[in-house]
């Protein structure tokens, strides 16, 4: 029997019972569609996390005080005061792979404009900070090294703070607001960055020279962190080594002592988050894959029932000359037709539901070619695998008994 | 006649039922010439069905020889038997055994789908011819449930004819039909036998059906009790004409 006859026999047999064929297909349709949609959502969120981090500057390095032993008591890194101007000087001198460097101190407090106020935080940084963090100004000017030297009471303002203390849309440039008790003149407005990957509002911020925050607000000589940027993404690892060495020397740590700081790169963060969302993708895929297998079992189930129900038809086909092989191929072909048709519909439905998710929920999605290929291949294999046993059962029927079957 | 349509020599068929051996056929010999119309009769338990299965190449004899169109079926494998059925035998069943939700034409085409030497156009043409031969040329696209019992059986006969078999093997082909429709079917069988020279082996238990054939083989307890030639078979056409015209004629003869 040639392929076209085989195809025609299987096709006609399926058309004879459209509802049953469709119900069998349903498992495969849902399985394939969910694999595609789940992988698209997983990939989409992975990509968006990566994009956001790149936006933060992928060559950015941060130094934080690390926890350390102080008379046997371990103290949290953030409350540990180790980073000073000495470290900045040492880093500038001994870490050739970093191009820009900025200390940072942070203070929380109320931003006050007349009767309006808003709790926010003020970052005290060097002018290089804007470059390192890839921040830009919408309006006004940035402060300069001179403002740092004079601990000038000027600041840059984020969009969220503007919305809350300048609610009527007036231009904040040149206005004087208070942060706590200290008056600051607003000299620039930051471009809105939105929320970061951790859900923090990156626009809820005031930025001032670090000397201003250190001297006028916090009265400290320590920094809470140091930001630096490597000359390129590729040399970040070298930069980390250089910085570590420079800081160890600067902190006069003996070889036996642990670092009292940590140097982090965005690469680590990207890797961590990517692997988290990668895990999410794997989990989603596994769940979707399970539904595909269940779809396959559905095919097997229906094919088994179908073989029993169509015993007489099988007997007739055998009596008019179908060989066992012909019957086997017919039922196998039916299973493959069901799973491939279901696969095609599933792919379309997967595309459609992915689009719906993007349009209604605003989730980023990426339909990967590999997930489409994979689910398609899996459903074809499912068809053959789960269709084989019922088909074999059909092909082994005794024509005499099959003909007499009621 | 050079070659016999079928030839059976000392055929025995035994079944193993647990520890007991049931001997369904206890040594049967006969042969059928091409163009004969043979009825095989017998009550239940006579071995009629077993003989039919063997004649239809669905089963093989335990002992003895069966030559169909000169081919010894004992040497054939399961697949070769299927091919033999496809090429040399046309089955007509009591319950018609048409595929549901499939047009008359597609039903008739079915045996040809299992014959790879036949092209799509030839298949269609032969199926149409076969349906014309059973006078259903205007029912090509009808589904079995849109046809009367007699019409369904005629589709089944067309299906048996379409592969131009050596022999048409009918199994109680009129068993589900009323007498008028039975006569119609028998008239068709006689016409195929007399005008087209088809060999017909008709298994039945109804004596009046046997009267239409040219030869009757009577089975009893696994042996041939009688093998009689019927020099002047009755004409089913005349019988049909002689039947009183009833009001329900041409109304559906739906039987199940």
Secondary structure layout:
The complex is a heterodimer of chains A (406) and B (256).
Chain A: H1 3-15, H2 18-55, E1 60-65, E2 68-70, E3 73-75, H3 85-94, E4 98-113, E5 116-125, H4 129-132, E6 137-140, H5 145-149, E7 154-157, H6 159-165, E8 176-179, E9 182-190, E10 205-209, H7 210-218, E11 225-230, H8 236-250, E12 261-265, H9 266-309, H10 311-319, H11 324-361, H12 369-395, H13 399-404
Parallel strand pairs in A: 5-10, 7-9
Antiparallel strand pairs in A: 1-11, 1-12, 2-3, 4-5, 4-8, 4-11, 6-9, 7-10, 8-9
Chain B: E1 6-17, E2 20-32, E3 37-41, H1 48-55, E4 63-68, E5 71-72, H2 78-88, E6 89-92, H3 104-113, H4 120-133, H5 149-161, E7 167-171, H6 179-195, E8 199-204, H7 207-210, E9 215-220, E10 223-229, H8 236-242
Parallel strand pairs in B: 3-8, 3-9, 6-7, 7-8
Antiparallel strand pairs in B: 1-2, 1-4, 4-5, 9-10
Q: How would you describe this protein?
A:
The complex is a heterodimer of chains A (about 400) and B (about 260). Helix content of chain A is about 55%, strand content about 20%. Chain A has about 400 residues and is of the alpha+beta class. In chain A, β8 (about 175-180) and β9 (about 180-190) form a beta hairpin. The longest helix of chain A is centred in the C-terminal third of the chain and has 44 residues, at about 265-310. Chain A is elongated, with a radius of gyration of 33 Å. The relative contact order of chain B is 0.18. Chain B has helices at about 50-55, 80-90, 105-115, 120-135, 150-160, 180-195, 205-210, 235-240, and strands at about 5-15, 20-30, 35-40, 65-70, 70, 90, 165-170, 200-205, 215-220, 225-230. Chain B has a six-stranded mixed beta sheet with strand order 6-7-8-3-9-10. In chain B, α3 (about 105-115) crosses α4. The model of chain B has no long low-confidence stretch (mean pLDDT about 90). The interface of A and B includes residues 15, 315, 316, 321 and 324 of A.
